[in-house]
Amino acid sequence: MKRNALHSLLLASSAALSMFAAACGSGTEGKPWAMRPITRDYTFPIRCGADSPVQCDEGVADGAVVPEGMTVSAADLNKGRHLYINYCYACHGMNGDGNGPASHGLRPAPRDLRMGKYKFDTVASGLPNDIDFSRIIKGGLHGTAMLKWDIKNDELYYLIQFIKTFPKPPCNQYGEVTAECREQLAGYPDSSLEAELGSAWEEVSASGKNKGKLKPTGEPVVPQHYDEAGTVVVDAPANPWVGKEADAIKKGEELYHFKFECTTCHAHYLSRKQIYDYKFAVSPEAPVTYRDAMFYAVPQQNAVQDFGVATMPPDFTMNPLRSIRQGTELPDLYRLIAAGVGVMPSWAQSAQPEELWALVHYVKSLKDLQLPANAARRDELKARLHADKFMPPPPPKKEETAPAEEGAGGGDAAAKDGEKPVVGEKADAAVTPDDKKADDKKADEKKSEKKADKKKAK
User: Fold this and answer.
1) 319 and 311 in contact (C-beta within 8 Å)?
2) Greatest pairwise CA separation for the chain in angstroms
3) Where do the structural domains in the chain lie, given as residue ranges?
4) For the residues of 392-433, what is the DSSP string, one character each?
5) Tens of pLDDT, residues 287-306
6) Average pLDDT over residues 266-280
7) Which pTM was predicted?
């Protein structure tokens, strides 16, 4: 089925269910979350600013946390609920758990919205900001069933706020699931769950009672703003490699493979011999080893607890980059590398902006190999890497100092064959027969002098 046809089918089925949900009035017991009318106002964490629903007070810096959060009325949340049914439920499910009727067989699976865990935001830690949701929803995620949704900006606001209302699951179904957890999940959401657990945007006390305290949204690593058309623009710092792209690619290649060791998770794009030559030049004594399947990415098992599956880092020469939008590839890559992706950490604290930009240019050069015009270059690279059977030689042995002979050395050297230890200027040198004769002669002369002195004394 073509993508546009799938888009139309999802809209049609969602619209039909939306009308059905509107017809269902009272009686929420046993109904999924999106079928339950919202009956209370919610307060969510927010940062103020020109591109935020909350404007900053005078003297408050743009992007500052609003301590009291942002209160959204039940009426506005119900608008978002109907929009969610219309656009989102088919994949993300009526309970936001990613188990909608169209989700079966989708890889990657739709996001579990109850967890409050997202991969493509601009924060190193904490909850994403509303502008992150806007960019993802309107831009889509390439290589997934997450389409670009042409939603009006005011409707998008209502939809985003409703997504934050999903009650947290009583336990993490992606971790070690106990029998009690399975039973609780089977009844999700029960009538008291909202009050007991709150949403992923709300803190709860140890007793499970909602304290009304808000979790913080993360501070953006890379700022963003809306343009006049409502499109999200990434405000990456100035690119210092303009006009020097070849130098940037070369520098980025070195950073990728060696300094930042991106190949711990991502594929290598240098041959074994190239890697050996670089490392040997830096440290000749250090052994050079290669990880298994070095020309492939490494599945990230630690992502299971947040996303339900082990995520696979992309092969930049073959796989679509999820959140990179056409026409804004460079700033989007900067955002992605600087802020991190899911279990991939933020590199903003470890790298200078010029290094991040060099990585951006290098990754972009790999991504460009996906273009039909560059298919031959990509195939040649892949064939050369996989045919490489180079085995590094062992590191050179260090020169060992010959052990000193027994009895040789300083004044404390052990005596040999009953002789006295050698002292003085010749202590560190081997004693020859001529030396011994000379010493004996001196000793005899001293004895003669002593005898002469005794005779005179008499």
Assistant:
1) no
2) 143
3) 3-234, 245-387
4) PPPPPPPPPPPPPPTT-SSTTPPPSTTPPPP-GGGTTSPPPH
5) 999 999 999 999 999 898 88
6) 96
7) 0.80
